[in-house]
Fold each of these.
Amino acid sequence: MTAYIGASVSRVDGHAKVTGAAKYAGEFNIDNVAHGYVVVSTIPKGRIKRIDTRDALRVDGVIDVLTHENRPPMAGTTQAYKDDVAPEEGSPFRPLYDDKIMFSGQPVALVLAQEWETACFAASLVRVEYEKEAHVTDLQAWRNQAIVVEKPEKPRGNAEKALAAAALRHEAEYFIPTEHHNPMELFASTVIWDGGGKLTVYDKTQGVMNVQRYLCSVFNMKSDDVRVMSPFVGGAFGAVLRPQYQMVLAVLGALALERSVRLVLTRAQMYALGYRPATIERLGLGAKAGGTLDAIMHEAISVTSQFEDFSRNDTGWADLLYKCPNTKFVHKIARLDLPTSSDMRAPGATTGVYALESAMDELAVALKLDPMELRLRCYSDRDQNGDLPYTSKQLRECYRQGAEAFGWDKRNSQPRSMRDGSELVGWGMATGVWEALQMPTAARIVLTANGHAEVSCAASDIGTGTYTIMAQVAADVLGLPLENIGVKLGDSTLPQAPVEGGSWTAASAAHAVVSTAEEIRKELLALAKAMKNSPLADAKLGDVVLADGKIVSKRDASRAVSMADVMHHGAVDRIEKEKTNSFNDNSSHARNTHSAIFAEVKVDEQLGIIRVTRIVNAVAAGRILNAKTARSQIMGGVVWGIGMALHEETVFDHRFGRIMNANIAEYHVPVNADVQDIKVIFVDEPDEIINPLGIKGVGEIGIVGVAAAIANAIYHATGKRVRDLPITLDKLQR
Ligand code: MOS
C-alpha cells in the first residue's frame, strides 16, 4: 500500500499555482463588486469623539462610509461562539463595534467605492477626533504587572531549593521581540452577494468552517446561507487561524450595500492583526558536577491585549526533553494596549525552546561539556510531566545523524578557536520539540466507474501540501494511479474539518481518507460478492485490498476483479462515501516530534556581520508522507529560524503605541543571500501507536530550536553571548 505514500511527489496543485490558475481570496473577479478601504486608528487607546465622513462621501464614486454609528447590526462581543481558536478568557475584537479604541491600527471606518483607488483616496478624507487615554505597549515597562496564567505543567520536587544547592548553576533572561507572520498573500475577502441574504465568502483563512460559524453567530445567519471558501492560501503560519477583521468588514459592507464587496488590507494594516508575542524568558538550570540536571526553572512573560488572554506553552518543554527531579514552570501575561497576540508557527515552542536551548548551551559551557553530550546525559525517555512513555521518540538518532552529517566531532570547543580568513567560525547546536496532534476530520470520496476518484474535505491547504498528500494517500488506498485522483479543499460545504494548524492536518486528513476509502472497499466487496462465480465470494473485508484498479485478495492475488467490472455488474456508475475519522487518543502516551539542529556561522571580526553558512536539521516526525513537500516544510522553518535569530523584529515607538516598521522593507526577513546550505534529514521513526499510518506532521517542528542553534554558534564564534533577539551586529559589538 505504499506506492505513493512517502514518495517525493511534486505538488499536484503546483501547475495551477505557477500559471496563475490558482485563485486567491482577493482575486475572484465578479460583476458589480464594490471595493473597500479601511480607515484605522492613529491612537492606541481611548474613544472616538467624532467621526466626520462628509468629505469622503462627496467624492465621486464613493458609495458609502461605514462606521460604528451606521453599520448594519451585529451580535455583541460576548456571543457564545467566539471562534475555534479564540482564547478562553476575554471577548474577541469586533470591528466597528463601538467608539472604543483598544489598539493603534484598529479599523474605525470602511469606505466603499466603485473603484479601489477612489476608496483609498476618500479614506484619507475621513476625519476622526479622539479622546485619548494613557496607554502601555512596552512589555519591559509592564512586566511586573503581568498576571499568572494556569498551565498544564505541574511543578515537581523543589526547584528553588535544588537550584540554590546545585553544584553548577546557570540563570539568565532571554528576550524575543514581537514578530509578524508576513504571509505573502495580503489579508483579503471577496464577499459575493447572492441575493436574498445569501453570501459566498472567498476568504484568506486557515479554516472555512471556523469563519462560517463565526459569521453565522455574528450576523445571525443560517449556515445554509453562508458559504466560505479558501481554495488556495498564500501563506498563513497561524495568521489566519482566527477569522480576521477584514472578512467581518467585507460582510458588513455587503449587507449594507446589498451588493458584492471586496476588501484587501494593505501590508501596513496587516500589522494590527495577530503577531508572535514579545516574550521574556527566565531560565534557571542547576546541574550536578557530572552533567545531569537537578533543577529547572522556566518563567515566561508574554504579551496579550487588554481584551483577550492569549498565551501558549512556552515553559514545560524541558519536561519532554531532559530528566530532572525538580522543576518549576510559570507563565505570565502582560495585558497591553495592542491587538491580541496569536499563534505563529510552533507557538510557544519557538520562543520557549529558544530560551531553554540557549540556557542548556550556557550550562554546557559552565560544565566544560560538549553541548550535545550534555543533552545526551540528560536525555529523557519519558514525558516527565505526565510520567508517560512516547508513542515514539528517535531524538537520539536525530543527534547522531545530525552530528555526523554536520561533522560535529571536528568541533574545537573553545570559543573563537575556529577561523576562515577574516571570519570567525562558530558551530552551535540545539534541540527542537513539537506536538504531534490529530483531530477528527471528515472526507468524502466519489469513485466513478472509469477509475477516477474525487476526494473532498473542508480543510485548507495553506501551502503545506495538503492537496498532494491527500491525493497520494487516496491513490494508495484506492489502488488507483495518482493522476486519477482529484482533491477538493477549502469549502465549507465539504465534509467538515478543523482549522489547518498545529501540524495536525497531515495525520487528520490522511486518516479521513483512509477511513472513507474503507467504506468504498466495503461497498465494492459487497458488489463483487454478488457477481456470478465471484472469485471473492467468501472474502471478508479484511482479506481484500484495492490495488491496480482491482479489488484483490491479500492472500491470493489471482483472486481479483477489476473495480470497473464490479461497478458495471452492479449497475452503479459511482460510489460515494463520507466518513468522519476520529483517533483513539487515550492519554497513555506522549506524542511529539523532535529534532536536532546544527548550525555554522561565520562572523566578520571587524564588522560583526553574521552569516549562517550551514544548517543541518535532523527531524524525527513519524512517517513522512511526501519527502519533497516535507523537506520544503522543514527548509521553510529553518529559514524562518534564521530570520528569528538575525533579522526579525517588530519595532514600536512606545510614545505613540505604534509599530514603526509595518512593511517588509523595514521588517527584515531572510533573503536568498542570507540562506546558504540547508540540509534536512528525516530520521526513520516507525510509530505503531500514534495512528494507523504513523503520521506526526511536519509543519512546525522545522523552526523550533533553530534560533538557539544559531545563537549558540555565534557564541562559539565570538565568545559573546547575546540573549536578546535578533542578534544584530550592533549587539555583537557592544
Ligand atoms: Mo499554525 S501557528 O497552528 O498555523
Amino acid sequence: MSRMIKIRVPATSANLGPGFDCLGLALNIWNGITFEPSEKLTYHVTGEGAEKLNKGTHLPWQAVPGRNLLTKAFTLIHEVCGKDMKGVKIHSQNEIPMSSGLGSSAAAIMAGMFGANEILGNPLKENEILKLATEMEGHPDNVAPALFGGLVVSVMSGDEIITRRYEIPELTIVIVKPNVQLSTRVARAVLPKSVSRTDAVFNIGRTPLVIDALRNGDIELLQKIMEDRIHQPYRLKHITGGMPAYRVAKQFGAAALSGAGPSLIVFVPPENVEKVKKEINKAFNELGIETRSFVTKPSRFGVLRI
Ligand code: HSE
C-alpha cells in the first residue's frame, strides 16, 4: 500500500416488511473509512459507536480477542488471499447508528473486506466478497445492498448467492430509532421455527409487490402491502412502544421494522415528514422511551472508493 485509500459504505434497511432475509435497501447514511500506510496496524472510530468501538484499539491489533467486525473482515481477506498484513492506520468516520437495524454490522464487514481487497490490488471479485461477507453476517440482505447500492433481492442457492439489483426513485424515508436494546441475536431467537401456510402465502404475494411499489415510487400501494407475518409481529412485542408506534407510522406512510429492529422505517410523502416524526416519537415517548429520528433517502450507490 503506497497511498491513502478512502471508501464509504452505506447503511441498509433489510426485510422491508415481508422480504425477510431477502430484501434490502441502501440508504443515504454512511460510514466513511480511510486506510493509510503506517508503521503499525491501528483502528480508530469517530462518530456513531466511537466509545464502544474504540475500546482496546490502543492495544496491538492481534492482542484484542473480540476485535470489531471491520478489522476481523480486513484480516479475513488477507488470510483468504494468503497475504501478510502490513501496517495500516484505519480511521472510520461513522454516521450509522449501531444496534439499530440499519446495517451497521454489514457496513463494517463490507468496509473491512472492500478496503483490504483494494489494498491488495483487487484479487477478489464482487461476488466473492459478497459470499464472504454473507458468511460473516449470516444472511445476505444487508451486505448485498451495502455492496451494490439500490434495492437488492438476494437468495442463497447452494454455494452461490444470487442477487438482483433495482434502481428506485428518490423516496423520502423517515427512520425512528427508539432507545431500547434488541440485538439481532435476540431478535432472531424470538422468531418461530416454522410458519403456517397462510402466513407464508401472506408474505409471498406481498414481497414482489413491495419491489414493484418501491421501483415505481408508489407509496400508496406500498402503504397497503408492506406488511409481514413472519417476523415483525414477534419482534414488535419485544420493543417497548414498538406496536403502537408502528400502528401510528402506518397511518402516515408505508412502515416496517428496519431489519431486526428496533428502528422503524417509514416511506412517506414529503409533506408528511414532520407529522410522522412527531407522532411516532410521541408514541414511544408516552411509554418513557427516548428516540432519535433521521430523514433520509435511498442510495443508488453501495460501497464506493472516493
Ligand atoms: N434479515 C435480518 C433479520 C436482518 O431480520 O434478522 C437483520 O440483520
